[in-house]
Write a structure and sequence with these properties.
Blueprint: H1 2-13, E1 26-28, H2 29-32, H3 47-60, E2 68-72, H4 83-94, E3 99-101, H5 107-115, E4 119-120, H6 134-137, E5 142-146, E6 153-156, H7 171-176, E7 179-182, E8 217-219, E9 222-224, E10 233-237, E11 241-248, E12 251-259, E13 264-267, E14 276-277, H8 284-289, E15 295-300, E16 303-308, E17 314-317, E18 328-330, E19 335-337, E20 343-347, E21 350-354, H9 367-372
Parallel strand pairs: 1-2, 1-4, 2-3, 4-5, 13-14
Antiparallel strand pairs: 5-6, 7-10, 8-9, 11-12, 11-21, 13-15, 15-16, 16-19, 17-18, 17-20, 20-21
The structure holds zinc ion.
Zinc ion (ZN) binds next to loops.
Keywords: Phosphoprotein
Organism: Micromonospora wenchangensis
Protein name: FHA domain-containing protein
Length: about 375
């Protein structure tokens, strides 16, 4: 039992992040773990975060949806959590996967505002509608998790629908995210590391990718570390990045960030660091066709370059077209610049493209079912 719980907590760990390109909703961990009516269990439970994340996945019809969690510092010593749960949250804090704050204040809404993310909360933000007009103007921007038949369901504060809705990044958010920032506090898990020099860079516990830095807090218009309250220094332009998504059987299974620093290899089970492993979502035929390392993506001067590194080859679907006549073969060792809406197809039904260009929407199926009983038509390419 204990072992099972720690496995679930490990799985949840893969779904919390402060990366502005990957997080899909913002929530307050102290609030979520106390939704006792979701399971009728202990006063506080970290597993409720997993339930809410699963509900988000179902609603967005996408696997592996990460959330941006704001954590009140008091939670790290909350006696209603088990010692194991407290330890797990501390680890997330140390690794910069969550934002731990002495006084979270309006930070959850600030992050939602800067990044254009939906908020998962039951709180009524009555006094804050002037500062964040989207609270009332954009239906679905705040959703409350409520008990439902198959786990939590969402009800939008405005509009009443079940689906969390993204907004645009605020103009200030866009400006803040164009730069990278450094906190003077040694070992800052949010704005340290990243290899940008600075007096304390070598002390940072986390060498976080500069492209994945969270948005600074704004205090009187000054970019500030939300954790330490210190003024952040501008460490230069943020490296370019592109968010790519993997769609298998019509469903987005995972997103990943491509930067100019590091290519990303996608395949059945790539050995390269940072590689994206597809094995769990593939049926036997797809597993046989797709190489351990199948395609490699690089970002060069803003262009996404795809190179086939497989045994069997891939294909390009220009502009995402599913017309077979338009499919362009990509032979082993061949490279190609990936146009805006182009998709790489590793195998029929297994595609990679820019996240904003790839629609998701097949009926949602849990990943474990997908691996054993694929419903999509699997055919070998004709080339
Ligand atoms: Zn800091």
């Amino acid at each position: 039992m204990r072992f099972e719980i720690s496995k679930v907590l490990d799985a949840i760990e893969g779904r919390v992040c402060t990366d502005p390109s990957l997080a899909r909703a913002v929530l307050d961990l102290a609030e979520v773990i106390r939704y006792q009516d979701l399971d009728g269990g202990r006063p506080a439970s970290l597993l409720r975060l997993g339930m809410v994340i699963d509900a988000l996945s179902r609603e967005l019809a996408e696997d592996s949806v990460p959330v941006y969690a704001i954590v009140h510092r008091a939670l790290l010593s909350d006696a209603d959590l088990t010692s194991n749960e407290r330890m797990v949250v501390r680890r997330w804090a140390d690794d910069g996967l969550v934002e731990v704050l002495d006084n979270p204040g309006d930070r959850m809404l600030e992050v939602a505002d800067l990044l254009g993310l939906p908020v998962v909360s039951r709180v009524r933000f009555d006094g804050l509608r002037g500062r964040f007009p989207w609270l009332v103007e954009q239906p679905g921007r705040v959703v409350a998790p409520v008990p439902g038949a198959g786990g939590p369901a969402f009800v939008a504060h405005v509009g009443g629908g079940p689906t969390p809705v993204e907004g645009d990044r605020s103009p200030v958010g866009g400006q803040l995210l164009a730069r990278r920032w450094r906190c003077p506090e040694p070992g800052c898990a949010l704005f340290g590391g990243g290899g940008g020099g600075g007096a304390f860079a070598d002390l940072a516990r986390v060498d976080r990718a500069p492209a994945g830095q969270p948005p600074p807090a704004l205090r009187n218009g000054v970019p500030t570390c939300p954790r330490h309250g210190a003024r952040l220094s501008d460490a230069g332009p943020r490296p370019r990045s592109e968010v790519l998504a993997i769609r298998i059987g019509g469903l987005i299974r995972r997103r990943f960030v491509l930067t100019e620093d590091e290519p990303v290899t996608v395949g059945r089970a790539p050995e390269e660091t940072g590689g994206v492993m597809l094995g769990q979502w593939l049926n036997d035929e797809a597993r046989r066709w797709i190489s351990r390392a199948h395609v490699r993506f690089e970002l060069r001067v803003g262009e996404v370059i795809v190179t086939d590194v497989s045994t069997n080859g891939s294909g390009i679907r220009p502009n995402g077209s599913m017309a077979e006549a338009e499919r362009v073969p990509l032979a082993p060792k061949q490279s190609r610049v990936l146009g805006g809406a182009d998709m790489v197809e590793l195998y029929p039904g297994v595609q990679v493209g820019r996240a904003r260009e790839l629609p998701t929407g097949a009926a949602f199926t849990p990943t474990s079912v997908m691996a054993e009983a694929p419903t999509m038509a699997m055919r070998l390419p004709r080339n």
